[in-house]
Amino acid sequence: MVYRKTMLPYLLLLLLAHAGWVTTADLANCSLVKNIFILAGQSNISGRGGVINHSNRPGVVNEAWDGVIPHECQSNPSILRLSGGLRWVEAQEPLHKDIDVNNTCGIGPGMPFANTVLKRDPSIGVIGLVPCAVGGTSITEWAPGGFLYKQMIKRTKAATRGGGKIRALLWYQGESDTKTLEDAKMYKLRLERFFKHVRHDLELPNLLVIQVGLATALGPYMELVRKAQQEINIGNVKYVDAKGLQIGPDYTHLTTAAQVQLGQMLAEAFLRN
């Protein structure tokens, strides 16, 4: 079925909000997927590499993705993504185009992660990526019981209907929690609670979590949030530090080249595990 481009974002939002309507018949090829990875958090894992603001006026946003796809991010028949409509399709950039629908999406770390894993371990089989990230979201918006959390769990459970194993949660979030001292101080407690609930609700008590240390912030308390990330005190949580990677002209988002590097770093952390 073909939809008019102008209606697509609204239809996709309906699909996300009512994902329970989708039946297992819509996941006909899900038996191909052997390794499932969840991508969640905010804009730097959703992907803003190559997204440019073409407005020259302060406070005015006119963003567009430049469409440049590095070879590390190219499609591969062995890399699938779970679409907003809960269908496995061949993964293509931008991975979050029908998930983070209110923002302009570009290159993220998901494709270079998957391509690096496949290159290093060709025997691993088909990789299924489950994009769930939404730009600008705080850790409280990911609290168990909230919309984002419920959609992530629902999408992940849908991804496993035909088999396959959830291998890891790739998590990059926290920029929004640097705005106030209270949120920065509460970040460790809230993040640990989030990870524990994810494991409980997916019935995977030892699920590998690979979290990314902040490279940028939206407020003055980045180091407090970074400290909280480094001090997470639950087992099987790995830390990959994005600090020092190239930042775009908005001083907030990683560039395309940095996203490629981050994806490779995440892959190395997974493969070491």
TrEMBL record:
It comes from the Eukaryota. Residues 34-271 form the Sialate O-acetylesterase domain. The keyword Signal applies. This is Sialate O-acetylesterase domain-containing protein. Residues 1-24 form the signal peptide. The keyword Hydrolase applies. Keywords: Hydrolase, Signal.
